[in-house]
Amino acid sequence: MDKQLLAMLVCPQCKGKLDYQASKKELICRFDKLAFPIRDGIPVMLIEEARHVTLEELER
C-alpha cells in the first residue's frame, strides 16, 4: 500500500487516523472499531462495506 495514500486516508465516519493491517488487507479505525477492506490494492472506504472489529482484535 502506498505510504502517501495511507497518510491521506481517514475514517469516513469520524475522520480519524487509520492503521494499516497488511496481513488482513484492511485499514482499521480504532475509535469506531471498523475495518475497511482493501480489494485489488484499492481501499474500500464505505461504512457499509466495513466490518466491526472486536476489542480482542484491537488489543493485538
Provide a short characterization of the protein structure.
With 60 residues, the protein is an alpha+beta fold.
Low-confidence segments? none
Distance, first to last CA:
21 Å
CATH topology term: N-terminal domain of TfIIb
Residue-averaged pLDDT: 93
Derived structural class: alpha+beta
Apparent shape: globular
How many distinct folded domains? 1
CATH architecture: Single Sheet
Strand-residue fraction?
25-35%
Strands, count: 5
The level of helicity is: 10-25%
Task: List the helices and strands in order.
Answer: HEEEEEH
The CATH class turns out to be: Mainly Beta
Lay out the secondary structure:
Layout: H1 3-8, E1 19-21, E2 26-29, E3 34-39, E4 42-43, E5 51-52, H2 55-59
Antiparallel strand pairs: 1-2, 2-3, 3-4, 3-5
Structure in words:
With 60 residues, this protein is an alpha+beta fold. It has two helices and five strands; from the N terminus they run αβββββα. The protein has one domain (3-59): N-terminal domain of TfIIb (Single Sheet). The protein has helices spanning 3-8, 55-59; strands spanning 19-21, 26-29, 34-39, 42-43, 51-52. Strands 1, 2, 3, 4 and 5 form a five-stranded antiparallel β-sheet that branches. The radius of gyration is 11 Å and the shape is globular. The model has no long low-confidence stretch (mean pLDDT 93).
Labels describing this entry:
28% strand; 60 residues; single chain; 5-stranded antiparallel β-sheet; alpha+beta; N-terminal domain of TfIIb; 5 strands; 2 helices
